[in-house]
What does this fold into?
Amino acid sequence: MTTHRKPYDSDVGDAEWDFVAPYLTLLTEHAGQRRHDLREVLNALRWLVRTGSPWRLMPHDLPPWHAVYDQARRWMAAGRFEAIVHDLRAVLRIADGRQAGPTAAIVDSRTIQSTPESGGRAGYDGYRRKNGSKAHIAVDTMGRLLALHVTPADE
It folds into this structure.
């Protein structure tokens, strides 16, 4: 399927698509239930992440928000984004003349201030005196993501 819309800055490039397409194709390209091109669904998801817009305000020239939401949930449940990050990190490490797997990690956390809509996800970080969530992050020595875990700030 080809798109006939003006491209967004967040659209996936050809080289990027060639890398991620095998990870995101959970069914064959000609599966009967597929109504929207996977590349367009990924473009819509990237637009959403880039703009921070609510799902229901997705532009009309992208696939419908509920189709993008449902597919993103399937990709997350299948661990597709983690697989992409893992393999991309290995490729970049090898290209930099290092072993594919890191031998050391750097661990840190930060509190992200919440809004009233955060509800039960938020906690109180007494040290930083903020309500919010805490992001626990592990990166390799090159700064590439190894793991990320988000908890209420009081955990």
Q: What stands out?
A: The two ends are 47 Å apart (CA to CA).
